[in-house]
Amino acid sequence: MPLVSTKEMFQKAYEGKYAIGAFNVNNMEIIQGIVQAAQETKSPLILQVSAGARKYANSIYLKKLVEAALLDAPELDIALHLDHGDTFELCKAVIDDGFTSVMIDGSHLPFEENIALTKQVVDYAHAKGVTVEGELGRLAGVEDAVNVSAEDATYTDPDQAKEFVDRTGVDSLAIAIGTSHGAYKFTGEPKLDIDRLKRIQQLLPGFPIVLHGASSVIPEFVEMNNQYGGEIPGARGVPEELIREATKWGVCKVNIDSDIRLAMTGVIRKAFHDDPGNFDPRKYLGPARTAVYEMVKHKIENVVGSAGKL
């Protein structure tokens, strides 16, 4: 089955008040774990590739791994998405390579420049049948090529969000309401500005909203990493109940990356600790793949709510 567009996915999600999990992929084991979870839960799926992942794995290898997933799971609806594209040239390259969705992140630019860049990508993508995610407002944190200090982070202005969507023609919009990239999302009480989200939904009824930096930084994996030699004390993510609440107010896509990294790394650290004589990658990457599968299945069933929505 070929890759699908996110357009119909998001329409169903909006009407059903659930979201689609968008999971970042970097290698074979991550893709296998995510796809197995989607198969078992009968969930639509977004596999997303960052610029950093393309550099690490080589875009040809990643594309072929996704093609393998399509052959292995022909019953699934799978979209292939570029995460945090920062130039027109990068977005054009992946569109020409067969991606069905791209994100153009001009959030670091002044408002008018962000609109101009986003509109340029939209015009090219829509002519090819590809959907576009824009971003307005800046999330704090560090993840892959994204590095924004707390001082530079800004929440999305609802009135600007409507103007941005109207003038660019984007198909979905990533907003900043309190999430952040990386494993250190909150120092105090975790909170999302749901009232801001509701206002944006009122101004853009029926329009799909995206949450970046939405990993919950699952405590058991943080503890496992620290127990077996890691140094990530105090890592905190977005409580899952806040993500579930956001899906009731127009959030149709929830990005998850840090939880994948923490699950894999924690299990690999434990495997090395428990069997220091092991040097067979299959014996630590296999359990890591299982951890990804279990974590993604949990997210689909209990957080984004997309189980059974094929």
Notable traits:
two-stranded antiparallel ribbon, 310 residues, 15% strand, TIM Barrel, alpha/beta, globular, 48% helix
Give a verbal description of the structure.
The protein is α/β, with parallel strands linked by helices. It has a single domain (6-304), classed as Alpha-Beta Barrel (TIM Barrel), CATH 3.20.20. The chain is built from twelve helices and ten strands. The strands form two sheets. Strands 1-2-3-4-5-8-9-10 form an eight-stranded parallel β-barrel, surrounded by ten helices. Strands 6-7 form a two-stranded antiparallel sheet. Helix 2 packs across helix 12 (282-304). The two termini are 14 Å apart.
Q: What count of structural domains?
A: 1
Number of helical stretches of at least 4 residues: 12
- The CATH homologous superfamily is termed Aldolase class I
The CATH topology is what?
A: TIM Barrel
Q: Considering DSSP H and I runs of 4 or more, what fraction of the residues is helical?
A: 40-55%
What are the SSEs and their pairings?
Layout: H1 6-16, E1 20-24, H2 28-41, E2 45-50, H3 51-57, H4 59-72, E3 78-85, H5 88-96, E4 101-104, H6 111-127, E5 131-136, E6 141-143, E7 146-148, H7 158-168, E8 172-175, H8 194-203, E9 209-211, H9 219-227, H10 240-247, E10 251-256, H11 258-274, H12 282-304
Helix pairs in contact: 2-4, 2-12, 3-4, 5-6, 7-8, 9-11, 11-12
